[in-house]
Amino acid sequence: MSASVKPAVEWGIRAVESGKMLSCELIDDFSRLEALSADWDRLWRADPQAELFQSFAWARAWWQAYRNRFTLCVLCVSDGKRVIGIVPLVRQGDTIVFLSQRQSDYCDILCEENRTEEVLAICFEKLFQLPGWKNCLLRNLKPEGQLLRHWRALPPKIRRRLQVFPGEDCKTILLDKDRSILPSLIQKDHTRRRLNKLRKAGSLTFRHIENRAEAQQQLDYFFQHHVRRHALTGKRSFAESPELRQFLRTLVEELDLTNTLRFGVLELDGRPLAWHLSFQVNGKLAFYQQTFDVEAWDYAPGEVLVHQLLVYAQNHIEREFDFTRGDEPFKARFTTHIRKTYSMHVDRPDLRGKARHFARAGALPLIGFGRSTRSLIKHYPKVFHAYRSARLWLSGSLARIRQDRSGLHGVARECLRIVHLDSRELEVFVAPRGKLCVAASNPGMVAREGQFGDVVDISHEHPGIATAFELPEYRQRFKAGDRFYAIWHGDKFVLGAWASTRRPAEILSVLPGSSFLEEGRHLVAYDCWSVSPDAQDHWKELFGLLSNAAAEKKLSLAICCPVTFPTRAELAQQGFELRYRLLGSRISHRFQAKALVADAGSDAVQAQPVPSFENHLQGSNS
Q1: Ordered alpha helix ranges (H), 553-621
Q2: CB 3.0–4.6 Å: which of 89, 269, 328, 454 could bond 73 by disulfide?
Q3: What is the model's pLDDT at position 416?
Q4: Which tens digit of pLDDT belongs to each residue from 1-11?
Q5: Rounded to whole angstroms, how far apart are CA atoms 622 and 425?
């Protein structure tokens, strides 16, 4: 509800087409909409192809989450005491949009079918008279929706202020047109191989959650993995928005979990691997959001989830399986039809409005060219992968610059990091086999082995340490058998190190033929990451975690670090000996050793003043 309740504005005009007096009410108080909820639902249910996104339950849940960011601007048209049309709008600053426009895959007005033109005419006239707004953009319009079907029949003085442009495509399966397509989609060879691979790994189950308490608990996992999944592609997840989280939690409480909101989970031996949130209304399943556990990437759980949903649709969905907005590659493998959506710009009847109208019309060819270019890129896999890699690299560099917060200095530092060729010196410390480091005692610290999902979280929260562009390389490290050991303070990452039992020469890029750390006898910690480099207790905890891991494997622990490592004296106190120095160069972000110096001498580990510490202490990737 608005902070201050304003009286509703009543306004009547003569509807020329019908000869009846219609009234258009501007509603800016949600309590007034609550009073009209029965009329809202009546108009919504009258449309046999209505989307959940236009239901009152959806609007109420959205308003509870976003009411502090928007002002209601709903237009309600009545014929006497009977409500015949509702145009659900909200205002943010000087811009007017559909209520829940960004969170809805389809938007439209609610109206009695034979009164649509009257309702649109009076509402647009009312909208033109409202003060203070500059832009009105109505997105996600279906061609078969009421607004797009009737806007061309409006009077010329209204129509000339409206512009319709192509919007996002929605991939879908029209089951009422050809239901026989489902078995062939379910039996796709590629998908069946993925399904069989998962079934061989354990007991595979798929179910829809129908208990609200369990659904709320599963939403926690859903949000976490949605953020991770998008971090892999260098994008922000909607689940990072507190309002969106609240919105979905409210929907779980508002909607029927046995019929309308279908929250499904794919599990392997009871462990959740993938989730989907879909809406089942009027014989249609709208596939709203999905995600999966990135640690199960090799099993393609997202694709198996879609397979299970298609089986569900075969038995429960009559009209359509709609994958909704988004150009994720997996959608193209299953869909049979593309629904075009459109956006409508509404311009004010003044000079500025006319100027925007003509400028937008002039930009239309450029918009079309951009869409054609993107479509063309996707038809050539090599070009598309190169484009995606470049985008990931650029987003990672920009994220580092933003986190640096030092203006032009940060930009210059990132440019040097990318292209600069400089010399580097790494030192290798070795502890006697069976030697256990003394860990610090701090109840606030958590020391454990991290998984790939943890690395994704770190890259998302600390792009100065790792970026999305580098995540495929870290995933390959896990596949090669390397491990990541880390320290958290509560749920906040503090520092960590990669460790491996692979050939030391391979890990540290030593030139072939070099005699370096006898193979099979060492656990090599070769890449250290730190958010808080000066916390001595954290380093002690990490050394203790690494030495315990080495002891379990009956190996000696070797730690490779730059000469600027801040705890070299601590390593000496823990019994480590300096065995080797690697002299090399950094080209881009990779270190290549050029010389190996053995038996550097114990005096090299005496405490020395060191320059400012780099957040990302890299061994093989310095």
Answers
A1: 568-573
A2: 89
A3: 47
A4: 333 333 333 33
A5: 10
